[in-house]
Amino acid sequence: MKYIVAIIQPDKLEDVLHLLDEKEIHLVTVSSVLGRGRQKGVAEVYRGHREAGSLLRKTKLEIAVNDQFVKAAVDAIRDGARTGSIGDGKIFIMDLDQCVRIRTGETDSVAIG
């Protein structure tokens, strides 16, 4: 089992979710976050407004997957989020030691679905 965390541009979220759905990966948690990368948050225009300060709006996706879905999930995120410009984001893949479905008590691969 793996836990995938991706930081992407907010306007690429729908593209990423569409590609994840095509690969039958439906369990995703999405958060609006602020952050900066190597450019130290160089201000940019987002939806007609110039972002203030050194932190830029980003979207964070969190996905727990069984091992056979890792490549499909990473490919979907990468392909959906890529613009070819600086600031496209990052994908982090971590081992997931345990997962518990609260409602049923199921654990690990069964709990992920």
Characterization of this structure:
By secondary structure, the protein is of the alpha+beta class. It has a single domain (2-112), classed as Alpha-Beta Plaits, CATH 3.30.70. It contains 3 helices and 6 strands, in the order E-H-E-E-E-E-H-E-H. It has helices at 13-22, 70-81, 108-112, and strands at 2-8, 29-35, 45-46, 49-50, 56-65, 89-95. The strands form 2 sheets. Strands 2-5-1-6 form a 4-stranded antiparallel sheet, with helices on one face. A two-stranded antiparallel sheet has the order 3-4. Helix 1 (13-22) packs antiparallel against helix 2. The longest helix has 12 residues, at 70-81. The protein starts with a strand and ends with a helix. The mean pLDDT is 91.
Question: Which structural traits does this protein have?
Answer:
four-stranded antiparallel sheet, 113 residues, Alpha-Beta Plaits, single chain
Share of residues in strands: 25-35%
State the helical fraction: 10-25%
How can the largest sheet be summarized? Answer: 4 strands, antiparallel
Number of helices: 3
